[in-house]
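quick one
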Amino acid sequence: MHNHYLIHIDGLVQGVGFRPFIYKLAQEHHLHGCVDNRNDGVYIELDCSQKDAELFINDVFKKKPKIAYIHKYSISLLRTSSSFSDFHITASKEHGSEITRISPDIAVCPDCLQDMETQPHRIRYPFINCTHCGPRFSIIKELPYDRSQTTMESFEMCQHCRSEYENITDRRFHAQPIACNHCGPYYSCKNNTDTSSLDYFSILQEIVKTVKSGGIVSMKGLGGYNLLCDAHNTESILRLREIKQREKKPFAIMFPDEKTAKKWLYINKTESDILHSWRRPIVLLKEHTKLNCELNQGFTTLGAILPYLPIHFDLFKYSNLDAVVFSSGNFGDEPIIIENYDAEKKLYPISDLFVSHNRDIHNRVDDSIVQYIDNNIQIIRRSRGYTPEPIVTENYTEGILAFGAEKTASFAIGKSKDIILSQHIGDLENMETFEFYRETIHRFCKLFRFNPRYLVSDLHPDYLSTRLAKEISQKTGVPLLQVQHHHAHAVSVMVEHNLYEDVLAICMDGSGLGTDNCSWGGEFLQCNRKEFIRLSHFPYIALPGGDKAAKEGWRMGVSFLHHYDLPIPETFKRTIGIEKINTIKTMINKHINTYYTSSCGRLFDAVSALSGICYQNSFQGEAAVLLEHTASDREKSSYPLSTEELSFHSLFKGIITDLEQNIPQAIIAAKFHNTLADILFNKALELLRENGLSKIVLSGGVFQNKRLLQLLIQKFKVKKIPYYYTSRIPCNDAGISVGQLGIGAATFYKN
Ligand code: ZN
Ligand code: ZN
Ligand code: FE
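structure w/ zinc ion:
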C-alpha cells in the first residue's frame, strides 16, 4: 500500500498559471503525483511521506504566482495500491456546480514586454500575454476558463503557439488568450479621411503624431474604448471636455513611469506599489506642481495611471510624450463603449484618429480608482483589475442577489461563502447604463451559474434597481427583502471586517430613503447585520426643489441659513441674486416642492456655496470635493460648537462672520472640516457611552473625503477606540450591494 496525500486548494487558482507552477514545484521537490483543475479548486495528489507533503505545501505558499491567492486548503491521506511514475497535469474536468474564481484582468508582465523584443514570432506583438498576465474577466463568457469560452475563440492558434500552449515548461502553458503575430488579434486604424491598412508600428506612429499635434485619439483597450490627448495641450483638453459633455470632472493621466509622474505628483511607497501592481488602477495623487489647470480645476490631486497594455508601453517607448489624458470612451453618464460598431458610430466621427482591434470585449470594465489613506488603499471605483475577485466571508451567501442603489450602481451575488461584487456600473437614470446593469446581472448569473433564491434591494421605491428587483420577485416568486440604505452602508463595513456584534455606525452620505420617508444622510445607527436603531441624526433641513437642491448647492446654502435664522452674506447675495434667494425662502415657508433631509452631503454643498467655492454640482460630489481641496493644511482651529444637540448654528454663524471679515476660503474650508470632525467625534463618544458600544463603523460617500476621515481617525486613535471603514469595497453607493447582501445573509440564513 502507498500513502498518497490529496491536497485541495481553494482560492484564485484558475487562469493564473497555478498548475504549471505546481508541476515545476513538484519537479523541484522530486515528487510524483498529479495536479487537476476542478470547478471547486485545484487538487494535487502526491505519492510521498507526510513530511514531504508539508514541505511541498510550505513552498506553494511561499512561491505561488503573484496573482494567485489561496483562501483555504485541506490535506487528506489516501491509501491506494497504485503509484505514480512521474508528476503530470490531468486534463480539466468539471466536478459539481461549485466554481473556482475568475481572475480579474492583469497588466502585461515584464517577461512579456521582454519577449516583444526577442521572440521572433512576437516582435512588437501588442496582444502578447502569458499565464501571469493578460485579459481574463473582460474576455470570459463562461466557465471553466478555456479559450473556447472566451472571445479568443475565433482565433485559431498557429503551430508555434499551440506547442507553447501544450508545453508544461513554457510560460504560456495553458495561457488561454495565447497569440502571436501570425495567429492573434491585431489593431487597425482609421483617420478622418481614409481607412488605412497600416501595420502596428505605423499605427503607433499615427497615434503619437495625432496626440502631439493636439488631436484626439479613440483607442480600444482592455475593458472598453479610451480617449487620449496631450495633457499639456489646453485646447485639446477643452475639446475633449466638450465632446464628452464633461464640464469639470478631472481627467486621469497616463504617465510613462513613476519617475515622470513625480515631476508633478507626490508618490509615497504604498502609492507606488499600487501604481505598479498588476491591477494597475488610477491612483489619486497629491500635486506639488500643476500639470495643466484644465485637467483638474480646483483640485489638488490628479488621477495617475501607468501603462498596462503593451500598446501603452509602446506609445511612450516610441515617443517623448510624458503625460497623456487617459479617459473612458463615453459621453456624459453613458457606459464606456466596448463594441466596435458602436465605437465606429459614436467615437470615430469625433476623433482625429480611431484605433480599434478585433478581439471582442465581453465584460465591460472601466479603469478602477483608488486613493491612499491611513497606510491603506481605499477603493473608490472598483472595476478593471478587481472585478470579479470575491469578498470572502465566513457566512453562507449562496443564491442571494443584492441590487444596490441607483446613482453609483453595482449589484452583488452570493456564491457559497463568497460575495461577488459587480464592476462599477454608473448612474441607472441613464438609459444605456440601466441596460448595462440589467445585462450584467444576466451575465453574472450565467457566468457564475448563479440562481437567485433571495433578492435584496433598497427601500427607495423609485430607484430603478428597486423596481427591477420587485419586477423579478413578482414574476418569479423569489422573495425580496428591502433594506434601509444606511444600514446597508454600515453592514458593508461589517462584512469587510467580519464584525457581528452591535456597533455604532456613523453614516455620512448624500442621501438615502429613511424609514420615516425622509431623505437621510447624517446618521448615527446602532446596528448589527440584521437590524438597526437610529440613535441620532443631523437636523432635518429643507431641500427646496428636491433633486434640484442636490444639484444646485446654493439652494442648500439659503436653506441652512434660513433654518438657523441667519443673514445671507453679501457676496452670496450678489452672485445668486436676491430674487432667486427669495423664491427659495418662499418655497420653504410654503412647503412648495420641498422635502426634508438630514444629509451630510447637502451640508457640504451649503458650505461650499456660501463660501463661494462651488455654487452648483456639475458632477456628483463636486462642491464637496472642491471644499475639501480648498482647505488649508495649516489651519487647525474650529468654529465654536453649539450647545444644542448636533446643531450647525454656531458653525454657520462663524462662517458668516469669517466671510464678512474676508477670511480666505482656504481657512473657512479647513475650519469647517475641523468643526465637522469635532461634532462627529463628540457625538460618537456620547453614543458609545450611552449605549454600551465599543466599535465604530464609518461609511457613506462622504468618507471618500480624506481630510475628514483622517481628522476623525486621528481622534479615535488617541482615545483608542476601534474604528472600521472599507478599503476593498467602495464606501460610496457602489458598496451598498455588499451591505445589502450581508443583511440578506443574516436574515435568510440566520448567520
Ligand atoms: Zn506575461
Ligand atoms: Zn501564434
Ligand atoms: Fe449612500
